[in-house]
Amino acid sequence: MDIRYTPEEQAFRAEVRRWMAAHVPAQPLPDFDSTREGFEAHRQWERTLHAGGWGMVTWPVEYGGRGLDLIRWLIFEEEYYRAGAPGRVNQNGIFLLGPTLIEYGTPEQKARFLPAMAAGDHIWAQAWSEPGAGSDLAGVRSTAVRDGDDYVLSGHKIWSSRAVHADWAFGLFRAPGSERHKGLSLILFPLDAAGVTVRPIQRFDGKPVFAELFLDNVRVPATNRLGEEGQGWAVCMSTAGFERGLMLRSPARFQVAAAKLVDLYRARAGAADPALGAAVAQAWMDADAYALSIYATASRLMAGGAIGPETSTNKIFWSELDLDLHKTALALLGAEAELTAAAPDASADVGDWLDGYVFSLAGPVYAGANEIQRNIIAERMLGLPR
């Protein structure tokens, strides 16, 4: 891996920076989980990105991308976060389902779903977890029964991110009578289909971040299945690889947060516990280490390699980095950490550290619980017995 940027990559960075300076909203958009208004404002931002050719730069041009390599995607992400651009409301689609569609989808599926995803016309939710199968994805019980040219879906999904306002979901379903990793299929279904009930779930801060989905004989075309029938586990593991090891949490997210943490420490160092300086330095180093690791992964993929079980190490690293970084910020803020940025007596540097901390608490759970990731590392990377 050559970590020096080429002149072409540097020119690309300058192009992204100019566009972001001209288009990023001056004021933050309303939260996309709290209200339909905020959700639609972020959908409009996705359309703005698409109009500029920035919806997903690695996708083929015919599907709404620019056909660029992963290094340029990382450069784009760095400039995106440094510009303070809005969060990606369609991250489940563009970062998870989209790459999986490109790998497993038929030409008809790619033409049908990818351009609408890139344009923000279809916002996607992930419908994998179930009440009895959270971390154990192979334990899902929701079924897909083939009936002619259709599947009939039945079951109960939970913790479906973005599902409160999303348009479509990608879900894992099994053939009746099948068990564990066999008989599973990944099926795409519209959330307004007959028989789908969406029930919001509030996070403890009151935001309806998730939903549970009840599917009562939901009929969808068999052409909505992604990959071969019964091969859903392999398809989902490909999606999970993108989620844990590459695209869901780009390095820029943590590098920008670490830089803000350094600024906070400089402003608060006089009154802070001296030991916190070491924690700040560690967060900075960890953010850069994660960036170098992802650049190495991207370089390997560009050279024809594949994502393997080492994605579990990435997932543990970025989720615990996020949590430690925010814990350090709250320790620097002391009692002020409990104030919101809107509080009249809050200091300017209180910012949104508390919201970030609340979100970081979920990091060791979503995208595969860290306990499960440690089991994967032990069994598949280290060869230890079960």
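(ticket continues) Second input and output from the same batch:
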Amino acid sequence: MEQAVFFFEILLPALMQGLVVTLQLIACSAPFGLALGIAVAVGRQYGNPVISWLCKTYVFLIKGTPLLLLLFILYFGLPSIGITFTAFVASVVGFILCNGAYNAEYIRGALISIKEGQMVAAQALGMTRWQAIRNVILPQALCRAIPGLSNEFIYLIKYSSLAYMITVIELSGAGKLVATKYFTYTESFAAVGIVYLVLVSITTIAVTILEKRVAVPGTARATPSAQL
């Protein structure tokens, strides 16, 4: 009985509050991280030498910087030069920068895989270079990059737990607070792990459905019936 009371009246409400914050972090970070990744990938692949170098440098710096260190810089370091973020905003900015850099690499790889002849064909039809990129090259690249982008989204779900290190009480933070207060480390962290597992499972199912919807007819991924 005591275990049931603890779970339903203490642990579960705390985890649900933390889950709401986690989902807010993801909802605020993922779209902008994807947009930044697209911009950086296109800029690096098709931009002039200066833009390409800037994009390459950004990716190099972010990939070489631990995310936790980046969050510390944004939250604890920037106030020394007069730039102050709330813990939530600092977390979102850090996640966007990190997510955008890795998304850029996935998308750039997909852009490279598109045959150059498609650019030539699009320009032969009267499109400008940027119209061809936006309307012909990029949509195909995004479809091809879905597996990599979905992995990065799953990583975002999991490394959102680092926001607790700069005082954002998200899912992991809520679990740790309960565990510390009631000395229920196994129960609390096991429950946190189950919630993350559910989030990742839902994401995996959603990505599988998305891949089938955008698959090119006649390919192996198109529909189950295409393989019969």
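Agent notes: Residues 222-228 have pLDDT under 50 and may be disordered. The CA atoms of residues 44 and 55 lie 5 Å apart. Closing as not reproducible unless the customer responds.
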